[in-house]
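Journal club side-thread
Mid-discussion, someone asked how the predicted structure for our own chain would compare to the paper's figures. Pasting it here so we can look after the session.
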Amino acid sequence: MPRPSRNLDRKLLDAARALLPKSGFSGLNVREVIRKAGVNAGMFHYHFKSRDAFLRRVLEEVYEDFLVTFAAAAAGPGGSRLRRVLVAVARFARDNRVFYALLIRELLNAQPDLSRFAKANFPRHVSVLAALMKECREDGTVRDLPLPALCMFAMSTMALPAVALTGLERNGVRALDGVPLSKVTRELLSDALIEARADMVLAALRKP
């Protein structure tokens, strides 16, 4: 019996990633994924066996996309590695902002699949950032403060604008102080302001 095309699992994964912004993780419906992918149910079970296994695969893909960019920035040459990491975090949060916001929401709601995934995987990038921040603290680049405080300040400052703007959009906000939200979003999430925000974070972290 010939093995089913490998493209079918790719179609299912792509369909899930397209549906997640509306459904969230807890609301992701396998039947909807199958229908959107144009694949029969037998192929879903052939490739993934269960909804839980499928969801883990979707999460792993998104996380690996992030980790590749994050690790490359942290491992690059020169003393500007921390800045590159900050920019990489902000760009990923911007380019995947609906997904990113949903991830945070469901982690705050202690969604079981997400909680297990976070515990198993998040230490991978946290340890990279902590090691880099420790190095910067030891060479006097950043303040002599606890590593969790330094990492939390840096990561949240770079990622929060994408999450906040997504929240405003999803709640029907159309303008801020008379300025169209679409214009505010374009400006705040532009490459230029991401770079500027990274510089502001570095200035705040710098040892007096």
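Post-session note: The CA atoms of residues 142 and 203 lie 9 Å apart.
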